[in-house]
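FAQ

Q: What does a record look like?
A: Structure on top, sequence underneath. For example:
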């Protein structure tokens, strides 16, 4: 089912966080992107593990032996944590807490790289500094975090890295300034690209859901009567065919009621088409009030209606239900001034099915012929079509 009109009535989002103002729409967007997002998260986590372990080669090549053990422990612990988070992507809990877990592993990974930087010699600092830059790109390239969390994570990494460069790494003022400037540029270029990407995704989501609803409404218009909103003849035939198939499988009997209002042309000519339309709407309401959820009321054309009643036990019950429909139709109808009541009645033909070679057109035609017999004899009555086996 497409999203309701009430949900799509407010598609605006916060300009900075990009979160939809409507909580219900935001929930649908989260569900919409979940499958693709999970796929991207798994790829991002595996690539993160590979990147982190490749940096382990630098540890063995560049790090002094006296601190190699500590550096290796930090790397292995972080890689293990990444694997644990990857494993949770296959659990139900990940659907609810994926953003929290990813933000956690991001901050832990950044902290581990900065911890390494505080332990190493300044001359091999550029190799690990590149790791910070790669982490910034990693956050935004896969769009695995919402823009709001990606922005917060990037800001934390940039701030923590800048503090680390200033107070814990021995460099000249201009060297520190150049490192911070490069990190700043990489961070905000990535943030801007991430912002544009998520904004486009949300706009595409809104447009897709609006088109889904438009297509749904077009289908509804094609299959429903514009005045009464009842199923039209095309949808009725499909419902009858479904009833035939189901009743054969369940060994049930169904009944089709062809209903033609008596003297409706006179009502239109005497009272005007507005009153005529009001009568049709009221008749449709009365008929709908009499049926069950599995049954169908349709407007075939003009003043002709058709009711499909499922699981009718026998012809006697079919006639009893037909009398009930006739009684509802015959109730007084008051016009706009609520003073003068209009006399309403109907001729009803009934066809029981399924029978051999039964199909929707034949069921309607047989009920129509039975209705016509009522119409030419006395009107305001009900007749059962001859039984077929």
């Amino acid at each position: 089912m497409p999203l309701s009109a009430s949900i799509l009535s407010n598609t605006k989002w916060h300009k900075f966080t990009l979160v939809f103002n409507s909580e219900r729409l935001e929930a649908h967007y989260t569900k919409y992107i979940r499958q693709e997002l999970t796929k991207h998260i798994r790829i991002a986590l595996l690539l993160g593990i590979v990147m982190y372990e490749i940096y382990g080669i630098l540890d063995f090549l560049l790090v002094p032996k006296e601190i190699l053990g500590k550096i290796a422990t930090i790397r292995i612990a972080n890689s293990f944590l990444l694997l644990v988070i990857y494993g949770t992507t296959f659990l139900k809990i990940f659907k609810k807490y994926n953003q929290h877990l990813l933000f956690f592993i991001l901050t832990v990974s950044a902290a581990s790289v900065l911890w390494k930087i505080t332990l190493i010699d300044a001359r091999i600092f550029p190799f690990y500094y590149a790791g910070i830059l790669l982490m910034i790109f990693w956050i935004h390239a896969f769009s695995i975090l919402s823009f709001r969390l990606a922005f917060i994570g990037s800001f934390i990494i940039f701030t923590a890295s800048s503090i680390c460069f200033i107070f814990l790494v021995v460099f000249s003022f201009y060297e520190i300034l150049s490192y911070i400037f490069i990190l700043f540029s990489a961070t905000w270029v990535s943030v801007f690209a991430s912002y544009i990407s998520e904004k486009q995704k949300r706009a595409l989501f809104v447009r897709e859901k609006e088109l889904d609803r438009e297509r749904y409404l077009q289908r509804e218009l094609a299959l429903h009567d514009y005045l009464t909103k009842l199923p039209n003849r095309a949808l009725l035939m499909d419902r009858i065919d479904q009833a035939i198939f189901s009743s054969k499988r369940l060994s049930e009997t169904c009944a089709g009621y062809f209903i033609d209002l008596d003297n409706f042309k006179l009502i239109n000519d005497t009272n005007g088409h507005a009153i005529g339309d009001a009568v049709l709407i009221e008749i449709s309401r009365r008929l709908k009030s009499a049926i069950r959820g599995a049954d169908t009321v349709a407007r075939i054309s003009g003043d002709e209606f058709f009711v499909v009643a499922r699981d009718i036990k026998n012809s006697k019950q079919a006639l009893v239900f037909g009398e009930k429909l006739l009684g509802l139709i015959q109730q007084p109808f008051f016009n706009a001034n609520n003073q003068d009541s209009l006399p309403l009645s109907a001729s009803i033909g009934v066809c029981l099915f399924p029978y051999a070679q039964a199909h929707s057109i034949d069921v309607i035609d047989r009920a129509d012929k039975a209705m016509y017999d009522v119409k030419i004899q006395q009107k305001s009555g009900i007749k059962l079509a001859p039984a077929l086996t």
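Q: Is there anything notable about this one?
A: Residues 173-223 form the longest helix (51 residues).
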